[in-house]
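Intended use. Records like the one below are meant for learning the mapping from a protein sequence to its folded structure. Do not use them to infer anything beyond what is encoded.
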Amino acid sequence: MTDTLRVCVYHPTMGTVLAAQIRAAHPDVRVDVVANTAIDPPDPQLIDVLVANTFPAGLLARCSRLRWLHLTGTGTDHVAAGAPRPSLQVSTSARVPAVPVAEFALMGLLALAKDAVTLVDSQRERRWRMPDAQLVAGSRLLLLGLGRIGTEIARRAAAFGITVAAVTRQGRPSPLVGRTLPSHRLAEAAAQADHLIVAAPSTPQTRGLVGATVLDALPRHGCVINVGRADVLDTAALVRRLRDGRLRAAMLDVHAQEPLYHHDELWDVPNLWITPHCAFRFADEERRVGEVFLENLADFRAALPLRDQVYPGLRSPSANGLVTA
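Structure written out for the chain above:
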């Protein structure tokens, strides 16, 4: 007799929805829901499949029967801390957030270019005041990372008449952008950009990549948007340049400390728009994550290769251009 497959949905908000989808499609599977992700789930040694976003250090090693980890997000930089076994299969939901994150990034680009903050403040203050708006059509966008998210950003930016360039690890050409440069030429590319959007993961190669040299290469009217990972950008260097007026504006959706403390200086930096790591959010997110997982669950049970599969601690080859492009 075959043991019942045990799936643990280990997530603070998605558990109920995902569990209902799994039970409806696979009634013979046991599904446990755990919302408190600060501690280990009950009986971790009995879990076959773990659906999670974050988890305590070493948890994957304590799940001695675990065969597959499915991440509800895109990032995998935290997987290594879970101490996974080399044989563990790891997949992501990278297909789901690409479009909403791209839309969010374009919203930021348009808002900064059109000085939307001034418009909002003027209405709140009941002041009739003209914004310091810039023309987006004909402007130049530099994308750091040309994976799923970067690709969707490039497609949308082109519709606004924006000239798009990209920096990836090797700088291989892409039909989606006018030119692609390798990562060691990032500062050179930044000098010819009006907007810089960071859509790269956190890896040993990308951490701190957008530092003082790159920020200084941007023109004074340049804007920076980070929807990738916080440690790719030197936030302190960005803050200094915003305070000194050496950059026009920035939007940060990812932060080293989340949530930001109430007293964090970032809240008060002029021309810096802080958003609460929400670029991926949309009304149907949980259902779409569930659909992606169910596709893989069917393949897993049929002993077929998983889609969007990664290796522990690494990005999927198709997930971000800084890995393979």
